[in-house]
């Protein structure tokens, strides 16, 4: 066997490493306690004592000598606990002058800027023509749906307002077109029909006879019905007229009288062509001693057409002959009558 030489490194035991660690820890504590303060003069430390033989030999360090050093470092880290207290962010400091100027608003109050902005927005919406058109379009669409489902709702929706008038007839083909026309022109209007007859011939002939029959209907309405004396009245009277030689046409005279404002307006519906043979038949059926012959014929054109062509009917002959019903013709004429009447009314009354 080979003998061990003096150059072979010593093996450090665990106990020796722990003892060395304790000594190093005591030296560090001693050095901290002897550190000079501001009031005490610095003291001179003594020379350190020589290290043990196993620590002084650094020429050749075996692999096993690394273990005590790692153990000492880990033990020191485990004995020392470092606690870091989180520092809250500093609140912004406000000067006293700024604090006095800061606005204090109650919970129920709104800032002036928000109120002014809301007012400007509503003002813009109220004055915007595009928004108004959209609103009117939506309103008219909803009203169209309602009146289509229930036609009787039209009178309820558009009734009221400043315009209140009576019609000298209880027939729907006269009252409905007048109501629709005035409600379209004025927006809201109350139109009521009353049965009234004229004292002219059954079939008036000529413009003068048509206007005379409309006036007599208004006079008889006020005598028969208990209505206000200043109530506006619209009278409708149909007649025939020979505009050209052997060219006969049926028309209607619309007369409006407003006693409260002293307004009187007349207009006529579009003419509907009548075949000459129907007029000749009505003349033949009128007696020569007919007391109202000065104003027209004793038999209406509708009765003659109904007798000649029973499939047409007494009330629909205008639609069959011209393609336009009498109700539609009266609606256009009544719309023109309402527009002229609106122009003659005082501005304060219309607005």
From TrEMBL:
Record field: compositional bias (Polar residues): 31-40, 55-79
Keywords for this protein: Golgi apparatus
Location(s) in or outside the cell: Golgi apparatus
Domain Non-canonical purine NTP phosphatase/PRRC1 span(s) in chain numbering: 172-279
Signal peptide: none
GO cellular component terms, semicolon-separated: Golgi apparatus
Pfam families per UniProt: NTPase_I-T
Region annotation Disordered: where it falls in the sequence: 1-114
Composition-biased stretches (Basic and acidic residues): 12-30
Keyword hit for Nucleotide-binding: no
Molecular function GO terms recorded: protein kinase A regulatory subunit binding
Organism domain of life: Eukaryota
Main location: Golgi
Coiled coil: none
Family: Belongs to the PRRC1 family.
Matching PANTHER family: PROTEIN PRRC1 (PTHR23276:SF2)
Name of protein: Non-canonical purine NTP phosphatase/PRRC1 domain-containing protein
């Amino acid at each position: 066997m080979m003998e061990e030489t003096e150059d072979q490194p010593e093996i450090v035991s665990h106990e020796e490493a722990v003892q060395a660690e304790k000594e190093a820890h005591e030296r560090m504590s001693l050095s901290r306690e002897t550190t000079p303060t501001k009031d005490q003069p610095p003291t001179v430390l003594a020379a350190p004592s020589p290290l043990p033989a196993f620590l002084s030999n650094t020429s050749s360090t075996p692999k096993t000598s690394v273990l005590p050093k790692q153990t000492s470092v880990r033990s020191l880290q485990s004995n020392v606990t470092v606690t870091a207290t989180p520092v809250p962010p500093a609140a912004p400091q406000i000067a006293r002058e700024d604090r006095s100027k800061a606005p204090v608003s109650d919970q129920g109050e709104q800032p002036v800027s928000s109120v002014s902005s809301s007012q400007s927005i509503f003002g813009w919406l109220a004055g915007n023509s595009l928004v108004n058109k959209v609103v009117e379009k939506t309103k008219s669409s909803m009203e169209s749906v309602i009146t289509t489902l229930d036609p009787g709702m039209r009178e309820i929706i558009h009734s009221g307002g400043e315009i209140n008038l009576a019609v000298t007839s209880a027939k729907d083909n006269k009252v409905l077109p007048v109501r629709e026309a005035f409600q379209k022109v004025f927006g809201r209007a109350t139109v009521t029909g009353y049965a009234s007859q004229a004292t002219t011939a059954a079939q008036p002939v000529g413009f003068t006879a048509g206007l005379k029959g409309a006036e007599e209907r208004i006079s008889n309405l006020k005598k028969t019905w208990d209505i206000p004396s200043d109530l506006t009245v619209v009278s409708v009277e149909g007649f025939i007229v020979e505009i050209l030689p052997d060219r006969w046409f049926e028309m209607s005279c619309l007369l409006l009288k407003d006693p409260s404002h002293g307004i009187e307006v007349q207009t006529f519906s579009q003419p509907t062509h009548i075949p000459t043979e129907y007029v000749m038949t009505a003349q033949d059926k009128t007696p020569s001693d007919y007391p109202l012959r000065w104003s027209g014929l004793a038999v209406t054109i509708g009765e003659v057409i109904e007798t000649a062509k029973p499939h047409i009917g007494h009330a629909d002959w205008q639609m069959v002959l011209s393609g336009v019903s009498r109700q539609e013709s009266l609606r256009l004429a009544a719309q023109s009558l309402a527009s002229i009447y609106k122009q003659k009314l005082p501005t304060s009354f219309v607005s």
